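Following the same procedure, sequence and fold were stored together, as reproduced here:

>
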Amino acid sequence: MTLLTETENGPLVLGPEQIEELGKALDELRAKVVADLGDRDREYLYSIIKAQRGFEVAGRSLMYLGFLPPVWLAAVAALSVSKILDNMEIGHNVMHGQYDWMREPGVNSRVFEWDTVCPADQWKHSHNYLHHTYTNIHNKDRDIGYSILRMDEAQSWNVLRLGQPIYAFALMMLFEWGVMGHDLEVENILAGKRKWPEVKRLIKGQLRKAGKQSLKDYLIFPALTGPLFLSTLAGNVTANLVRNVWAFSIIFCGHFPTGVQTFTEEETADETRGEWYIRQMLGSANITGSKLFHIMSGNLSHQIEHHLFPDLPATRYPEIAPEVRALCEKYGLPYNTGSLSKQIGSVWLKIFKLALPPSLVKSEPSPGVIVMRQRKASEVGV
């Protein structure tokens, strides 16, 4: 049997047998990594935690000399790195349960809280559950545009979309606040689909977490520097902005550049494990870069591997990426990867393009891969 069939001038077609073979190969790859988890993974995590704390102490300390412009810049840089490491390489990955096997309370997904305004429990629901379960499925995955942006042609257009570049810029600058409000599902509240007791519980959690975070960054630490209150406040605001812009850029590059594929609920109903894997691969994109770049991105520069194995330690993604890419090549699947400039350029081009009326925009080519799903006997009249 031919592995892939190419229709005349059409996309590649992947059949049920090949899908299940691919699923089995990815299951075996995951099992191999799980069997190898141990001391080096633990040591890596604690080395990153140590570095993050070191950068935070350095940043907070340098703020006491913030009246010197070069020192202020160094303080902001150190604090920015601290916040990025905390959110991306530590918080995001720990809350995915990547280190729960260690059975150590400080890095357990059930109790970990991160240095941002979004409560961990709400993020885990909107991200770990909704996004990773229903990746790129319309009307299921609310991360497609974060309910603010039109990031796919299948999303409806209206005149308000013309302001999309402005909305995207605002979301980028205030990204932690956008993430905080994501689990509220404001559009469903306005449509009367969410009950007040549930909304009230979410808002209370957000006010509690955001209040503590804002108090720390915008009052307590600036007050501790006495006459340098405003200087420290400006430094903390800047560090949060740097973290927001960086997180937005990495996350959007992993989900929305040219080539990612979206799906309907009908297409993904009753998925097999192999079909779920393929959806993750077609709906994600990677970013090339140095080892330091991958660390600073929380290894979300390996978004394809992350979507395949969200509960494996992210530090393992660069190791398994060549094997995942080889499987893509074997089965004719695209492996969407490129430099940061290429991917972010593609994302912003899409943001501007999809802000325009569909009649003024040339449609993207049809998907390069069609998944031939296993059909039930009742569906074919047997």
Notes: The chain is about 60% helix and 5% strand.
